[in-house]
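Hi all, long-time lurker, first post. I run a small reading group and we've been trying to get comfortable going from sequence to structure in the token notation. Rather than ask abstract questions, I figured I'd post a concrete chain and ask someone more experienced to write out its structure so we can walk through it together at our next meeting. Sequence below, copied exactly:
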Amino acid sequence: MATRTTTFYEVLNAALKDFAEHGYDSESRLLQWQRRLEEAARASLMSPDQTRKKLNDFYRLIYRKQVERKEVLELHPGVPKFTVDRLRPKLRDTLERYMLASANLIKLNQEKSIQQTVQRFAGWASSIPKGGSKAVDKPEERDNIRRGLASLPFEERRVLIDQGHKFTSALSEVIALDGGALGGFWRSNWRQANYDYREEHKDRDGQFYMVRGNWALEKGFIKRGPAGYTDEISKPGEDIYCRCKYQWVYNLRSVPDYCLTRKGKDALAAAREGRRT
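-- Answer (accepted) --
Happy to help. Here is the structure in token form:
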């Protein structure tokens, strides 16, 4: 018959009870409980294999929607579907890179939560006078010590959601830069209810940011606009919990008039005249 594993909360309750009875009477008692708490905390978390599977499932779902179903092209009007297929190797590299980065981030967050929990316990335990005290064995003490570990699943979900937005934005950028985008209109979600937007990103909403060195710029058809270049500001999704996007532009017709040079306007007029004849 298998032996039941002692849970983290059972170990914590035993540690609290022990110090309530004996108090801080030796460093060895404190170190012993710190070690047991750390071991129990690690055992309560997802294993590395479970974490990898969770991340693989999460990112592959986004990848299927954005790449295999071509939903990423919603932000790339006029770009043919075969462009996505042509860029599959780079898009796959982006997938692998984000899965690895998120696994490392989750691991760091887990280590941080475990250490914070053990530190809270040590701070509480070392304040108990030798001989113990019944006054300190309170539910609020228990809740305060375990709070960091208890909130970890919520924080991991927030990490995944945030990384998912970053991943989607990175996939879109690969297509834009390799597909010859001239620039993009910043799209903010500041009007969305309960969205904690940044004022700076709200101010960017609707602004046109140019891709530095694009073909139309090199030919003298367009010029830098008042908003500047895409590489002069943070990318959509780059800042934590940002859900902004670029609506990418690939032709002169879609570039704001204030970015067109005389040469560009003449080329655009000639193209329109050619379509009429």
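A couple of things your group might point at:
The beta strands are 183-187, 208-210, 245-249.
The first strand starts at residue 183 and ends at 187.
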